[in-house]
Design goal:
By secondary structure, the protein is of the alpha/beta class. The protein is built from nine helices and 15 strands. The protein has two domains: 190 residues, Quinone Oxidoreductase, Chain A, domain 1, CATH 3.90.180; 124 residues, 3-Layer(aba) Sandwich (Rossmann fold), CATH 3.40.50. Strand 9, helix 5 and strand 10 form a beta-alpha-beta unit.
Length: 342
């Protein structure tokens, strides 16, 4: 490698998007079980702006360790540039030049240092990039896709949730299942809708009216414009609600579920265990975790055309501030992605 430095976005202080700085930093060296990835695109996710703000609303005991200066970002698509020691052997071994995607080190580390020209990545977090899409679309897949997968298809780990004692277990989805996806146009939502359809379920999509055509195209059987009517006022007897918005208002979806149904809030809300038991409804959530194996399954679905990643907007790495400002405005359709010049 001819140079020893690279460009990266760093936080030197917490705050609004203007604290994101474009810096010169050393190119990292891959450690045991890692490769060095030449980054082509980076997907944005809520933990990115939580980190930028310093996670002020998160209890100290739930905060992963992090210190400044910090390079944000966890979702990456790029090309293997160098190999660290002890990366394993066999036909699935990564080689220099391989195109890869990954959700890096989450949630062990709050951020995986992906807003950069190069990043080190544990091989266990990586999968081969879908061949049918470019790096920008591929970078939109890891965290959102794995969140949808681990909620709906297979949890794939036995780590306890930091938010509740109950273990999250996806339910079986088939043609007899009706799934309501709240926030269906967003990063997690639009991928979850497609995974539910892939499993044969009937899907009710909830979003603002501007997203109806987009969600119908992705396969939504029914659409509810939340600016016109509240889903809990018009929907009954669904089997599963995936609330990608979550938070304090998630409890309102209890009335949409049949007895024996499940409510999966991506962001924990205010629930009463006794009420849930009386209604016969299971409410569980989990925290998405890095998984190269599950990401490989998602990549295969992308290549097969069963799942597609939609891009809301793209910004060059130098304009990370504008990307964060776009995220703050909301009403996102798909994913926001940073592109890195080759």
């Amino acid at each position: 490698m001819a140079t020893t430095t690279m460009k990266a976005i760093r936080l030197h202080e917490f705050g609004a998007p203007e604290v994101l700085r474009y810096d010169d930093v050393p190119i990292p060296a891959p450690g045991p079980g890692e490769v060095l990835v030449r980054v082509h695109a980076v997907g944005l996710n809520p933990p990115d702006w939580y980190a930028r703000e310093g996670m002020p609303d998160v209890p100290p005991e739930l905060k992963p360790p992090f210190e400044l200066p910090l390079i944000p970002g966890t979702d990456v698509s790029g090309v293997v540039a160098a190999l660290g020691p002890d990366i394993g052997a066999g036909p699935d071994r990564f080689s220099v030049g391989d195109e890869v995607i990954g959700l890096l080190r989450f949630p062990t580390a709050l951020q995986g240092s992906a807003y950069a020209e190069y990043v080190t990545a544990p091989v266990a977090d990586l999968a081969r990039k879908p061949a049918t899409v470019d790096h920008a679309h591929a970078a939109g897949l890891p965290m959102s896709g794995l969140t949808a997968w681990q909620y709906l298809i297979e949890l794939g780990h036995d780590h306890p949730s930091p938010f509740q004692e109950a273990t999250h277990r996806p339910i079986a989805l088939d043609s007899d299942t009706t799934v309501l996806v709240n926030g269906a146009a967003g990063g997690v939502g639009h991928l979850a809708l497609q995974l539910a359809k892939w499993q044969g379920a009937r899907v009710i999509a909830v979003a603002s009216g501007t997203h109806e055509a987009f969600l119908r195209e992705l396969g939504a059987d029914e659409f509810i414009d939340y600016t016109e009517q509240r889903a809990e006022d018009v929907v009954r007897d669904v089997d599963l609600v995936l609330d990608t918005v979550g938070g304090p208002d998630s409890r309102r979806f209890l009335r949409t579920l049949k007895r024996g149904g499940s409510l999966f809030p991506v962001y924990f809300g205010d629930f009463d265990d006794a009420e849930n038991a009386e209604l016969g409804i299971t409410v569980t959530l989990t925290q998405v975790r890095s998984s190269g194996a599950q990401l490989a399954e998602l990549a295969r679905l992308v290549d097969a055309g069963s799942v597609r990643v939609a891009l809301d907007s793209t910004f060059p790495l130098t304009d990370a501030r504008a990307a964060h400002e776009r995220a703050a405005r909301g009403y996102i359709q798909g994913k926001i992605v940073l592109t890195v010049a080759g």
